Amino acid sequence: MTDLAEPAHLVAPRRRDAAATRAAILEAAKRAFAVTGYDRTSLRDIAALAGSDVALIPRYFGGKEGLFTEALKATIAPDRLRDWDRRRFSRDVAEMMAGAADIADPRTRTFQFLLQAATSPTTAPLLGRAVQERFLAPIRDWLGDEAGQERARVLAAIYIGFLVERLIRGAALEGVERTAFVDRVTAVLEGVIDPQA
Amino acid sequence: MTDLAEPAHLVAPRRRDAAATRAAILEAAKRAFAVTGYDRTSLRDIAALAGSDVALIPRYFGGKEGLFTEALKATIAPDRLRDWDRRRFSRDVAEMMAGAADIADPRTRTFQFLLQAATSPTTAPLLGRAVQERFLAPIRDWLGDEAGQERARVLAAIYIGFLVERLIRGAALEGVERTAFVDRVTAVLEGVIDPQA
DNA sequence: GACAGATGTCAATGCGCGTTGACTTGGCCG
DNA sequence: CGGCCAAGTCAACGCGCATTGACATCTGTC
To answer: What is the pLDDT of residue A81?
Structure first.
């Protein structure tokens, strides 16, 4: 598999501890699946990254699919949306989108993981439900909408779109295009967050 | 592989014709790759869909990767952007996004194909270049921007985002949420297409 | 300190894959 | 009509994979 640019083992040499081993495998799976996708990631890769044995994975997770779904669930954790400053949100996001996608950033890995899942017909429904519960609902609360969640939907969609664009763009934007891009993205986001402003 | 909901063979029984066979394989590959992705699609699947033999694929396309890159190139064709009515564009797109993704629609398949390519580190750069040439440039022309292409970038990103959202949403929106969604999406798109309005 | 169950190791199995090469069939041209 | 080359078929190979079950080792408990 591709280089993960990480220490050979995710964890320090540990004593016999099923829970810790399970956790190490799960963490390794989250990283590996995010970078390489479901199919290109072998259980041998994950085991090597976790510093454990391949045979433990079917035992602890019931198989590759079980590991994937559990890694998916663990990845879509309730976001720390409350931490975001509402005044700076749009501009911060815009600046982030103007940059390059950094594979070392855990959030990039998370997003790639989710995108991988979105393209597979089998995992897409599962992802849909998870996104609904753990992504859309928090955004709606954050926005303070009572009536519907269409605004959260729109915001999430736009956010995702810029992430994809950044992913396939590869490099960061520079110069005039960057500033113009940031301004426009800020305006777009602001228009959704504060429609009347 | 998953059901493609298509006739067993893409083409009528044809006589010995290398060009036609090649074309049938390529068409089958475009469909199969879009639905199942690179890894989950086997050459045997494609051959069966095209009504030909597996062994012909390495011969005609030099291998699976060759077939994929050729299918990718054939998929990113210059879009018929000029046909779109600029006044109705935003609302048409918004209505489309409020509906459900239809796998029978060739455009849905195309998009899924591209998204698949975007998530693979190896194919992402290739996709980026292709998108730049055959997607961003036409949009910029359509928008009539002289200075930069940041507006085309933003529009493309938002468009992609809604496509992804629709993909993972699965079902169509209904009732109040639908109308609210359509209105808001229309407004967002209009804000990018005609910033001063 | 010894037992027992939990934990980790290892080799082996079966399967599906892409690819290869030898073979057969078909159609065009003389 | 007959030969010849393109086009298509078929069987087989090697490889990597997930999974299994038998075996070894550690660790907490009495």
So the answer is: 58
Q: How far apart are CA A63 and CA B53, in angstroms?
A: 33
B160 with A156: Cβ contact below 8 A: no
State which amino acid sits at residue B25.
I
Confidence check: pLDDT of B1 > 60: no
Given a cut of 80, whether residue B195 has pLDDT beyond it is no
Which residues sit close to strand D, CB under 7 Å? A 15-16, 41-45, 54-55, 57-59, 63-65; B 14, 16-18, 20-21, 52-56
Report the alpha-carbon distance of residue A185 to residue B116 in Å, rounded.
25
CA–CA distance, B31 with B193 (Å, rounded to integer): 32
Protein CA at B16 to nucleotide C1' at C30, angstroms: 21
Structural domains of chain B, ranges and CATH numbers in brackets: 18-75 (1.10.10.60), 81-193 (no CATH)
- Which of A176, A191, A175, A6 has its CA nearest to residue A104? A6
CA distance to B109, B110, B111, B171, per residue, from B102 (Å): 9, 12, 11, 10
Closest-CA distance of chain A to residue B132, Å: 9
SS (H, E, C) chain B: CCCCCCCCCCCCCCCCCHHHHHHHHHHHHHHHHHHHHHHHCCHHHHHHHHCCCCCHHHHHHCCHHHHHHHHHHHHCCCCCHHHCCCCCHHHHHHHHHHCCCCCCCHHHHHHHHHHHHHHCCCCHHHHHHHHHHHHHHHHHHHHCCCCCCHHHHHHHHHHHHHHHHHHHHCCCCCHHHHHHHHHHHHHHHHHHHCCCC
* The two structure tokens encoding residue A44: 């041998």
Segments of chain A with pLDDT less than 70 = 1-15, 77-83, 121-123, 126, 145-148, 197
Contact B134, B78 (CB under 8 A): yes
Residue B154 tokens read as 């933003």
